[in-house]
UniProtKB/TrEMBL annotation:
Protein name, as recorded: Sugar transporter
Acidic residues composition bias: residue spans: 86-98
Keywords: Sugar transport, Transport
Residue segments, region Disordered: 74-106
Amino acid sequence: MSITAETAKQHENDPAVLCCRAEAGITIEAANLEDPAIFDELVDSGLLSLDGCLKIKQVLGAKLTKTSDSLCPLTPDNVEGYKDDNGEEETPQEETAEETSAAPAVEAAASVQGAVTTIKSGKVVISIKEGKDIYLELPI
């Protein structure tokens, strides 16, 4: 259930999670966010992971970069123009191989031409370019 601007202000330091499906390109506002009161139960049941999740105060006014389903945590991967903890806007940086050395990626050979499988930041990522850019991401 979405929250109001007043509730967002009260929970500004809580994790930011979408309440409903949202299209890429929207400006994130309180009405797009889920009530943090339900997160403990969802995390305990394994239905929600808040790893790397930005805070509500960081995402208000930022842009969603990927169309996302309900209960999707807002992270630097799917939000552009979010604020750091000091209220300053973060500038997106492109990831290079050198920057990812802290969390090394493992690339596996695939039998399908154009398919790439990597293990990075605790996730298995399978990207298949044939078939209209199929992209699967599985937690490990």
